[in-house]
Description:
Blueprint: E1 11-12, E2 15-16, H1 18-25, E3 43-46, H2 60-72, E4 76-80, H3 96-99, E5 105-110, E6 122-125, H4 128-139, H5 147-191, E7 195-197, E8 205-210, H6 217-225, E9 231-232, E10 246-250, H7 256-277
Parallel strand pairs: 3-4, 4-5
Antiparallel strand pairs: 1-2, 5-6, 7-8, 8-10, 9-10
Helix pairs in contact: 5-7, 6-7
The structure holds pyridoxal-5'-phosphate.
Pyridoxal-5'-phosphate binds near residues 47, 52, 80, 82 and 112.
Amino acid sequence: MVEPSLSNPKSDAGGMNPDILRHILSRWRPEDAKDPSSDIPKLLYCVPTGGNPTGSGLTLERKQEIYRLAQEYDLMILEDDPYYYIQFTEPLVPSFLSLDVDGRVIRLDSVSKLISPGARIGFLTGPQPMVQKILYKVMSSTSHPSGISQMLILSVLKKWGHEGFLTRMEDLRNLYREKSQQCIVHLNKHLRGLAEWAEPTGGMFIWIKILGITNTSDLVTKAYLKDALFVAGKVFQIDSSAPSQYIRASYAFATHEEMDKAFSRLAECLKEELSKKI
Length: 278
Ligand SMILES: Cc1ncc(COP(=O)(O)O)c(C=O)c1O
């Protein structure tokens, strides 16, 4: 097994790589999970669909393998999955929660990406003792989500009904799938040969590797000054002071014309940076 590094990242276009996870966990023995003094990890956090920032999603096979590893090392899985209904291929890949036979998955859903981010409503599903503990924590911090927001979302859901909700989710999938494809068209037009990317499998983001430079911070600032907004890859790293060759673009709101302008301006800024190096 090769050590994970920037050129051999811990996740790829298919999301978290179970082989790398196994390699990382092999520093411990599965029996260490029973030793309270061991520093063995206890929880695996994961964004299984439309990864923010990578746009990648786990296949069912990867989820099953990761779940088996969680069983072997007795890990809880925290499944942060607000983009679940925005998967671009159907049938939808089932959630970790639906694979759970041990009560080791806590699932987080949010209406932010599906109905309204301003409502600030999310919900949690998982084993009762864990949910109860989290509930106590909520009671001693925010008390509960806004009652008005809860009423609003409840009445929307009641009005739509189950079938109506699923139809809306299908519309949403179609909308974002189309937007992701438009984004790829403009990337190809302006950045072919200057950058590399993997097609998103869901969600709202595309993760772009910029070729020829080692850190995208200045590039992102220059593009911003030309009204083109991207996020520098380094802000998504555990060590956000380390350089990153990546940028994240969101296709959620931008129109065809805006995407065209944004990538054209990014390419201009990049060519300027590259010409300084010659
Ligand atoms: C993976 C992930 N989890 C959670 C959230 C936050 O969702 P909420 O608006 O419900 O706080 C986001 C939003 O960007 C996200 O990308």
